[in-house]
Structures are given as structure tokens and as C-alpha cells.
């Protein structure tokens, strides 16, 4: 379940309409139930797992499943509409897909390049072709550390990407962010350099595996939803800086500026803000504390009465979701509702530096946004284009595109086939 907003994250900014907030929460629970069905359905399609294979570079990979055309089309026509609560027409899958979990070495830039092991997904079309375009998918935030690409049975967003892209001739890769998947590190929610590193090293690891399989690659595309939209823009910056050619980058409901995202719920709440956005503050506060070496940072952000619960949420320990307050003012210390305090705090300064749009973008970019998105506002979703077009005569490489009156989940589900059509034409 995605969670820059957990498919529906957002605080109840205006609690005057309690019935509306309750209705949104009920909708969230319904979506969660549908997701459980989708996860169970995908799990039934698993192939027998094979022993890991090591390639000369030290990367290893193991077969974790094979999804046939019928399974992929079930995702497109039955499962995804239930989870994302919207009817969307997708082009049908035409080939089966073999799924591999890749384990690779990486480093944590924020911790003096500490060496670690990380995991990710490689999905290979089962066709006679020997060369494929590549789609690197950056996942959204999730409740469980295994709801990520390398555990596709548990990740509905990944399932949709596999069905729409790998099921139609694209190699799909997807890094599990540090702390997710099989990683033993703490989670690095919104930790920009580590997210860039995870995706960059996964791209290299996937290439090593494909070389072992004697498969080659053509055009490279990248995409992501919600937090994955942010990670996609950050990854794009990293790739452009080292002169890796990207043929197109696309996001859905992607907040390119984490400070703006957090400030919005604190300072300018909207009536449609999703009631679970407080998870953003929990995950980011603990992640920033762990990765930037700031003991006590999370405690300085989270109210005393909810600190222990928040720590359980971050560490993925058992907890009752309903115990998390929907009123952000109960969860966050009151000082942070003063814009000047937030901006000058250690937490705020890190958030302010966590942006992925202030460079001269060279790659064609499509940022899709929903006009009823309860997590990422229209203004924030259009920010990259607005900034780039505001540079001198304007950089027209970035286009912000509306998916209509869609919510956070609906924006992703609607954008995915639009990504595919655009990528196919590049």
C-alpha cells in the first residue's frame, strides 16, 4: 500500500466536518481490504523459488515467480480497479514475465558511505527477444517493509507496473529503499541521497544480471508514484549528473519538495486532506534522526504521548492503526505549527534541503497530478514545471498533466497507461 500517504495519507486539517473525515477513513479501510485480496491473489501465482545465482560482479539473483498472461491481465482488469478504486482501461499483457529478487551491494551516503546490502526486483519478459527497453520504477511508502518491489506478491503498485510494462515487453526494475525488503538497515523515508543510491546501484545490478542472461537493453525510462515520484525526480538528477541518458521520466502525485509537503498540512490544511498523513511526520522524523545522526530528533517532533507508538510504526512493530491520531495537532508538538519555528528547526532544515527540482532538467518529464488528490496538492504537483518554466525564457522539458478529478490512488492508476503510451512513443 502506498503511503507517501499509504494510498490516502493526509491529516484532518479541518476537523469541523467529522463526518467527512470518518467517511474518508472508511474509504481507506475499504481500500486496504481490497489490497489484501489482491496480495492473496498474486501470492497464488508464485513459482517455486530457486537458489540464488551469483554473477561475476558479486550481485546475486533468485527466481521468485512467473506470472502468465492470464494472471497479468487479471491484475489489469480485476485486481487493480479494486485496490485503486477506479476503472481504468489498460492495454492487455501479451507475454508472461519471470520475476527475480536481486541482492546487491550499496553504500549509505549519509553515513560516510557505509557499505550495505540491498534488494530489488528484476522482471523479465518471457519472449524470444534479446533486447528490451527498461522501466525503473521507484515505489511509494508502505506499511510493511515487504510491500515493496522485490516482494511483488505483497505490492499492488508493483503488480500494476509489472502487468502494464513487463507484460508488454519492458524489463522492469525496482529498488527497495534502504531499510525495506530484505535490508537490515533502518528505513530511510525521504532520505534523498540514499534513495538515489539505492536506485542507481539497483540499475547497475540489474544490468549485471541481464548481461549474465545474455540480454541487452535499449531505451531507459523511470517512473514513480507518491514518495516514489519524489524518488524518481531525485534519481533523474543523479543520472543526469553522471551523463546517463534517460529517454523519459514520469511521476504520479509526486511531491518534489518535502518541506512544501510537510508545511502544507501544518500551515495550510485543506478540507480534503487525508486523515492518515501524520505517518509522513512519523516516518520522516525517525528516518532523518537515523540517517543524519541526530539523536532525539524524532522525540523533538512527536508529542510525548505518542512517541512510543510512533517508534513502533517506524520500526514496523505490531501496533493498532486506529491508535494513530487523525488530528495532527495531537501527534506533533505545537511549536511546529509556527512556520518560523518549523523552518529554523533541525527537522525543518533537513526537509527544506530535501528537494528534487532545482537544477536544469535535460530529460523530457511528465508529472501527472489529480485535481482531487488528498495528499499532494495541485500546486505542489505542478511545482517542477512551474520552477523550470520560470527560469529565464523557460525550460519546457517538464510538463505537468492533469488526470482530472482523481484522488491519490486514482491518479496513479490513471497515469500508468499514460506513462506507457508516452514511453512507447519516445
Describe it.
The protein has 426 residues and is α/β, with parallel strands linked by helices. The protein has a single domain, classed as Rossmann fold (3-Layer(aba) Sandwich), CATH 3.40.50.1820. It contains 15 helices and ten strands. The protein has a ten-stranded mixed sheet with strand order 1-2-3-4-6-5-7-8-9-10, with helices on both faces. Helix 2 runs antiparallel to helix 15 and helix 4 packs across helix 5. The longest helix has 26 residues. The chain is globular and about 60 Å long. The chain starts with 17 loop residues before the first helix and ends with a helix.
What strand order characterises the main sheet? 1-2-3-4-6-5-7-8-9-10
Label the CATH architecture: 3-Layer(aba) Sandwich
Low-confidence stretches: 1-48
Distance between the termini: 30 Å
Cα shape = globular
Which percent range describes the beta-strand content?
Answer: 15-25%
Structure at a glance:
By secondary structure, the chain is of the alpha/beta class. It has helices at residues 18-43, 69-84, 156-164, 192-212, 227-241, 258-267, 278-291, 297-301, 307-315, 328-331, 339-344, 346-353, 378-381, 383-389, 408-424, and strands spanning 53-54, 60-67, 96-108, 114-126, 131-138, 171-175, 216-225, 248-252, 365-369, 398-402.
